[in-house]
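Researcher: Quick one. three chains, 323 residues in total.
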Amino acid sequence: MGRAPCCDKANVKKGPWSPEEDAKLKDYIEENGTGGNWIALPQKAGLRRCGKSCRLRWLNYLRPNIKHGEFSDDEDRIICTLFASIGSRWSIIAAQLPGRTDNDIKNYWNTKLKKKLFGRAPQSERKAQQIHHATFSSLLQSSSPFPPSTVLYNCSNNTYQTPATSFSCFEPSCLTAASILQPQPQESLLGPIQQYQLQDNGVRMFGGEASCSSSDGSCSNIQISGKNKELEYSNGDHHQQIGMHGYHNFYSEVADESQKLIMGDHGADGWSDNQKSANGLWGETETPLDYGIEEIKQLISTTSSCNSFIFDESKADEKDVYY
DNA sequence: AATCCCACCAACCGCCCATCG
DNA sequence: ACGATGGGCGGTTGGTGGGAT
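Model:
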């Protein structure tokens, strides 16, 4: 049985908004606010519209300081860079572009920017390649034997990838649901990486531990529960579980990070903490926005499109971190 | 002038998650 | 603890207008 509809579908108007409806909605919200209840709002405002429709109309069109019209080159670059690193998280990308809405950016990407980057080649050819990014960054700072590292999950071929400086070997000692083969060193745009091939043909639940050794000989374990998007990191007596309970928390974390990426959170040396910690991904001298258009194209073509995410343990909820 | 095709974008849909009772 | 509800999100659809044939 499906869930109950949010409104009486038979009695709500659909389709384009009239100027009168816009005026009613705008006047009501400016005078009374949304009241935190979009479902009840249309009735109070005298509109025969679904609450969700009102919300969308307000957020995408009526609210103050909405910017319409051409995107600047800077905006293009920000969109491309963020798309390459986090995928189609339009709301997060929109958060970095004041006045732009996620819908705007999504439409702009789908209709113009994609073509600008790739010409008219069908994106569907690239859709098979969907990569999950998992950034194990600040987790591995300071006392950790590991340098900052990045793990990429590519769901098109069930592989995890990480910069070669992070792990020298990977011993699948305790895996239950999935196993990991010996790493295969590879070159990539992100620098040298090692690739961990899963044997389970797509099941990404790790029931046990995946042990690995760093180049200095120390040992660590990483446990990944793909279904619940939870990661656990253990290094001797140092043990962290990285919880990802809910996309909303996750989104805000990523938004924080992408804010730093774009706006900068720079220390005395001119590097943001995030840039430093992401050096395993971005390289020694590059900032994310230093990507040229060809590199962005390459990144997008190999990391598109819909299921990218970044894990940043430093932002993990207190309750999810223990030793 | 009529038709077709395509680009654009506003709006809708369905899903997931958080919150609340 | 659990189900109902609402908010928010990404993907998709459909209407419209302009250019090509």
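Residues 2-3, 14-17, 50, 52-53, 56-57, 60-61, 103-104, 107-108, 110-112, 245-249 of chain A lie near DNA strand B (CB under 10 Å from a C1').
Researcher: Thanks, that's what I needed.
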